[in-house]
Amino acid sequence: MIVEPVVSSRVEPPPLASVNLGLPMPFGRCPADLYDGWVLHEAALRNGLNTLLFPGQALMAFPGEDPTGGVAFAHGVANSTWISAATMVQDKRIRRDVLDAAGIPQPRGRAFSLQRGRTYAKEFAETIGYPVVVKPMVGDSTVEVMPRLRNADDLDQAIDYLWKVPPSRANFTQASYAFTQILSPKTSSSTRTRGTYRYLVEEHVAGQYLRLLLADGRLLSAVHAPGGPWNLGEGVRDVTGEIHADIEAFAQGAAEATPGMPVLTVDIVVNDFTGPTAHENRPVLVEHSERPWMYLQHVADERRISELGHELLQSSARHAGLTLPGSGMGTQERVTFRWEGLSQVAEDIQAAEAAAGQMQLDLRFTSTDPVAGVVCGEVSGPPAVIALLSEFVIDGHVLTAPAMAVETRPA
Amino acid sequence: MRLSIPLGTAPKRVTIRSAEAVTFRVPMDLKAEDSQRTIAPFNYLVHLTAATAGGKEVSGLGEAQSRPHQTGDSHEHSWPFLDEALARLVGEELDLRDPLSDIRSRIRALETKAGESESLPVFPFRATIMGIETALLDLAAAALGMTVADLLGRRRVMPTPIPPVLRHRDAEAIDRFFSGVSPRQRRPLRLLGTGDVEADLEHLRHVATSRSRLHRSSAAQPLWMNFRGRLDVEQAHHVVRTAVQWSAEGQLPKTVILQNPLPSEAHEETMELQRLADELASGYTTSPDVRLLARNAGPDVTADLVKSGAAGGGLRMINLRPAQIGGVLRTLELAEEIRAHSPQAQVLLTHFPGASRITTMLHRDMAKAVPNVEYLSTTADVEKRFRVSGRRSRWRRTPLLRLGLGLQPYYEDLVTQARARVLHPTPPQPAVGNKRPNTYGDVDYISPIGAYAVHGHIVEREALAHGLNSWRFNKSSIVVSDTAGTQLPFRTTRWPLSGVVAASVARHKEATRILLKRAGVPVPEGRTFHEGDHGLAVQYAQRIGFPVVLKPAEGSMGVGVTANIRSESELDTALEMFSKTAHGNNEFIVEKHINGGDYRIMVIGDHVAAAVERIPANVVGDGVQTVGQLIMEKNVARRANPHLGPLKIRWDAAAEYQLHKVGYGFDSVLPVGERVYLLSTNNLTQGGESIEILDDLHPSIQEACVKAVQAVPGMGYCGVDFLLEDHTKPLEEQDAAICELNAMAALPVAEYPVYGTPRRLSEQFVFECADAFGLQAQAQRAENLNLRLTIRGGIKGVGYGRWFARRAARSGLVGWVKSTGEREAEARIYGPTAAAAAMVTVAILGPPKAAPESVKAIHVQDDLDTVEFVLLNEAADEGNGTGIEPGPGGAAEDFEEASNLESEGGSVSDDLNESEVAEEQLDAEAIEDKLEETPDDR
């Protein structure tokens, strides 16, 4: 048997922060990767739509009986997003080529493989100069990015980190629709990533880090995050009203270069976001994502979230030719629910009742079928919390095992 | 001298009953730093069977190491030559009273038939002919109850293998090495030169000193340095002088072998160096023995060397490679001649790298019979990866009892390794039960792309065929655009007409089932249970009705699955069994059992575009061949399918189990027309077969498929997995259910079915998109494409241009390719659509060491002013000299350097293992495509 060296690394990517919801623990924080789906779920409830939620945050929100007669999202990403476009931008080497051809400035960068790339990666880093940024070549934007690597030693450590097999990395996450990568080690006894796994080494760009959220080419929000999206300390704020029109135009240019993404997030670095983008102030695109990643907007200004959720829902409704029933719900509402695919109904009922209590929801079960694994009931409370309960029921936070489908209808 | 113990009476003759040949690619790490190939060469296995007058059966095996530049065997000519030669052998009688004369005359006849040509002054197909010769010698020896060594005339008992190579150059590492060698071990050692003369000489001296100090028992053994042809004449003179002097002074051992000091063509100069060494040596009383060894060479040069040595002296050592100089008996004759004229000359007997055990066994036996053989190469590279032959007999292993080479074909591995195969006499085709599979004209263009990347190719092909431009980033990702600049991305079947939710939902079987059930589509009812919830599971089964299937919630390959459970008591037993399996502590699923065939029905938009029935891997008996031979025949025939060619029937425990169940084994000869299944599952990836049946698919089934797909929002394309009892009957008249939706189902399944009507889904893909997004695609499919390619990425210094030009020329394209920068090349290609489009896809692969990152293909109108394919500014393509096929005497073709490392603990073979069948020798991307395509391991 080959004994592999234990993979350890001093450099680790900063995690995407979870969002404080003001609820008692363990439901007090929403992980960043669930956040967008939850926001859209809440928006659907507020608009009086029926919802059907499946694993992978696949949400259908619809009036009437037909789940396909409405709008749909996966992790809050609109279903009108072409699967091939989402796949393409998740491959950052391809995304770089496509944006480059459209004349969008990006940091200098190149992809290397774990197996053979270390020496070349270091040579390349020397050429472009430290600090550099390392990110997995394929994967969700901003996830597992290791920014500001100061020297070859840091770079070595970052590569060592990537040698740890992805599912065992603390900060690894990927969208449920993502391209099926081989993320398992080559043998069951191994803990190392396969050698063919690739990563990107990019120039670190200094300046103001700005996140821009667009829907159908229109800027919905701009957030200034001085420490990047991984560092949510002081200074993260909404600057939608402050950015120069050139910045908005820049983001629109990036959106046009990658068709098939009605909603997208563009992260840029610029010297001064309030000024025109003349050569001294040329923005550089550092991330480009089909996922809204609105946890950052939450940190910047929590009050805008409902509005953003509604805007994104509206955008999808327009694409689907659907007129939204309007804000049917107030701050307190009541819905009926049906949970399917439960494996231990009795234990799950107990767990759900306890969770609802902590979340200050009024929940009762109206029918249970332990043989089929189906329960029905009613729940009332704020739409946001009802949506959260549904998301957690599917995600495995509440029940003994994740449910396979959660349906809600306004009572 | 003879060692074989004669048992019984020797037969006087044998009649050849059958002749079989199998081609396989030599396993090689083409990405290795010192690899100079872009494609692995072929070896041929030759297998003859014969019978004596008394009906006793014997067989003979031979291997041909066909190497175009060295042996005159180019596959497209040498394989038909072999086929014909073997056909003629069947029915022939081999005279065993003087077998060598009989075989010699047969070989002479083959040589004459092979003929001579202007480009090859000596007869071509030398390796192929030697393969036949070897099989005949083996057959004769086996029939006579002796080894090949004894048949050839044994002169010695044990030959010496070529000494191992010491790669360390660091003083401490060298000391460590010698300290670690057992004092009882006495053997010469080889070193590698670098071309830096002084450093190399110093290294030689250092190794000698270190060895005298730390490993005294070997101190007097020869030291050997391979200069790899890197010296000029002046430097070589200096090396010879110094070596003689140091040897005389005791700083080097008495015998020093200087191998390949000069470039490959400088054989005569090497002889002169030997004369110089001999002259210098004569001036010392200690008589130092410095030997010059020139590279192995073809028959002409070798004959010249022998003549020159005979005339002027200077032949002290010579490398004879039988496959290169014309076979076993010719080598024997040549060595006799050398002994007659230069009795002191030592012979090295070598084979090409990439030999199987058949060749090494033959060389071992030859080395016992050929005069003056001092060393021989013994490494069977092929067997590091798979077996070509196995022992005929466990107990007849010693030279006293071994029959011939003692080997027989190892079909268990050959079934998947065979690239081509002939068998004479040709077995009759059974009249029933064996439909001829479809063949496809584009297979030669597509096969380099690899099975799983085909579906990344065919959409691009159709886009190009309909006037759209393409931009490719890897095997599966392309962006298609029209002249107006509208861009559409594709990653295989991830396309603009499917949304993210469709991909997300289809990934979860359970979610799919719930959604489809709500939509009123027939699904097998089922649910997941927590470990140990047996009582609940039984209640559930009663509710949905028997029969049911029990399976683990996670897992594949059928482990822990019990199907067709018909009663409560059967379910109890199955649950009890399940709890004892490796999955026993996990969740499990109870599901309605549907007793139907397995169908993949392709839905594009709102219509069914193709339907394929999948059946398990199987063979049909012909009354002549064994199951093993039938599997090989089927796998070879499958190579005419661009998609399924590499996805072969494997011989493994599962196949053995299935075969055993019906009372057969691997070596059983199946009765004519009998079909046996080799797997219980229908996986096309494991040799299963596809039959396209859309024309017969009942409309009610088609409606159900469309309804299922429309139940998932934004699912623009889907492969619906349907279990059906009879696809021609209405749904309500049969037991049927949809068990899975595949958002990424592979298009080639229907585009390249084994049987039935091929459906060009990829073209429909392009038209659907053109309609939906207003792309300006031409309605008419172009017959020829005229394209400009821009290739970017790591393509410098890896022989990309030469590789491209050769591939394009072989595909019948005209045009040119040229390097246009450090990381960029440009090409113009013109030719038939299938060939040109495949070239665009293959361009993203490049030769083994290339790493292209994008290929842009744009339609152009202007005509090319060439009628062939040319590499422009060749100098800019120069790299490390990587070629398709090393030239005569290429450094990488030298013996054993790549496989016999003393100091590095077999690191090369580890490297080989590293790339070994890395999931059936696919790269990561191909495996990913496979995963997308086969979420449930289908």
TrEMBL record, chain B:
Pfam families: Acylphosphatase, RimK
Amino acid composition bias (Gly residues), ranges on this chain: 880-890
PROSITE patterns assigned to the protein according to its UniProt record, in alphabetical order: ACYLPHOSPHATASE_3, ATP_GRASP
InterPro entries for this protein: Acylphosphatase-like_dom, Acylphosphatase-like_dom_sf, ATP-grasp, ATP-grasp_RimK-type, ATP_grasp_subdomain_1, Enolase-like_C_sf, Enolase-like_N
GO BP annotation list: SOS response
Entry keyword annotation includes rRNA-binding: no
GO MF term set: ATP binding; metal ion binding; ribosomal S6-glutamic acid ligase activity
UniProt similarity note: Belongs to the acylphosphatase family.
Name of the protein in its database record: ATP-grasp domain-containing protein
Organism: Nesterenkonia sphaerica
